Amino acid sequence: MNQGNIEDLTEDEIKELQTSSDLxxxxxxxxxxxxIKVKSPTEMFPTDVFYTKEAIGGFMMSKFxxxxxxxxxxxKFIYQPNRLxxx
Length: 87
Hints:
six-stranded mixed beta sheet, about 90 residues
C-alpha cells in the first residue's frame, strides 16, 4: 500500500515502511510544514530545518534514489519506494 490512513496499518506494517524509507517527513502542527526524520542526518538532509510540500516534491522527483515516507498531521501517509531501482 502506497497511501492511506496510518491507523489502518498494523505495527509491523508501520515498522516495515519506516525501515524501508530513506527519508521520513512528519508534518508539524502547522499544516504544510514538515520535519525530517533520517537514520543518519547529513548536510544534505539536516534535521534542524522545516520542509514544505514543494521541497519534498523536489526530493521525490530528483535524480537521487530515495524511498520516501510522508506522514501528515491528520493521520494519513504516502510512501514512494525507490523509483529508480537499487544503487
